[in-house]
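ok here's ABC transporter substrate-binding protein, seq below lol
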Amino acid sequence: MFSLVVVLGVAGGCSRGAASPASSTPPAGTTITNCGRTVSVTTAPQRALTLEQNATEILLSLGLSDRMIGTSYQTDPVLPELTAAYDAVPKLADLYPNREAVLQARPDFVYSTFTSAYATDAAGPRAELADLKIPAYLSRFACEDPTTGEKAVTFDGILAEITEIAGVFGVDGKGAEIVAAQRARLDAVKGAGTDTTEVLWYYSGTTTPYVAGPNGLPAAISTHLGVRNTYGDASQTWPAGNWEQIAQRDPDVIVLADLTRGGDGDSAAAKAEFLRTNPVTAQLDAVRNNRLVTVSGSSMDPSIRSVTAVEQVATALKEFGK
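and the structure came out like this:
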């Protein structure tokens, strides 16, 4: 009978030296198809700009801090082993930088794992950046046109993205090292749960709770661990739930997203307190038996932290006997 709060650990394949300058032989030129667009670099980027934390941590984990001229949109504390490297890279904006700030930074490669980073009031559309000879990469899980990307998040897709980014920067060896380490960690916890265990992934909101449905990272974790996603039958990846329906479904375990940027009301601690004091949610089996797990908000999206989130939930399921 306890509440398990797990702090995010080391990203797969990372060590104390992971964020040091990467040794590589820059490719003569690389052209890839990314979300339906051709992205070309004439040589390995030397002035990369990341538009949010998950992209930032991928580049830092590949040892590319010396080739980064800016970061932006930090949503969680940076992974401890990447902190020194992160602090050495200028922060361009608290949220997304606007187009003017991007152009002033003179990047030779821009990377985001969210479509919203390329909005007209943010960095600007990728097509416009391409017209200015600035290659702009977008995660395959967030393509502007969904038909050009992945329909659902998979761990194979996440690792393929890390491999592709490593290739663009000419650090294929480091990419392979990270991917191999993450695959080994995934294999170690595969099927750690039971198919009778229902897990609710609670992302944000109290009056209207936003939860994880199919096709996102939580769904991929659920499948990998062999448990059932309470909202796996939803029509959206992040549907709006309601507490009465959640009470009827009565999940066995609840995973809480710790959204530090969302303020105290969206922290995992605040969510747990709400669940315990709200008359409807206080009766949930998972709440009464303190089967709550905390993960960082960014780990509920495809990232280098995704494997850590799998391990966190696997550990909790074992402790809970689920």
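fwiw The longest helix spans residues 172-189. kinda neat tbh
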